[in-house]
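> forwarded from #structure-qc
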């Protein structure tokens, strides 16, 4: 299995996960106030929505790459 096929499988998996979950969240630390040695930080939760077209496009692109890699040999 070469790198081209690995990228194709990863694209397919990412597309399936994007369609299944539709969004993902992460926590971002941001500096709110810094007064001398005292520093206050705030944790903000960010949510990113994954469009359906991006998930489907990733699956199609990965499948096309996989088919191309398999027929090339």
């Amino acid at each position: 299995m070469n790198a081209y096929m690995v990228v194709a499988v990863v694209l397919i998996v990412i597309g399936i996960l994007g369609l299944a979950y539709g969004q993902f969240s992460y926590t971002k630390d941001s500096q709110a106030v810094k007064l001398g040695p005292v520093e206050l930080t705030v944790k903000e939760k960010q949510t990113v929505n994954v469009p359906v077209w991006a998930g489907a496009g990733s699956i199609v692109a990965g499948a096309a790459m996989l088919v191309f890699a398999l027929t090339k040999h």
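QC bot note: The longest helix spans residues 52-72. The two ends are 11 Å apart (CA to CA).
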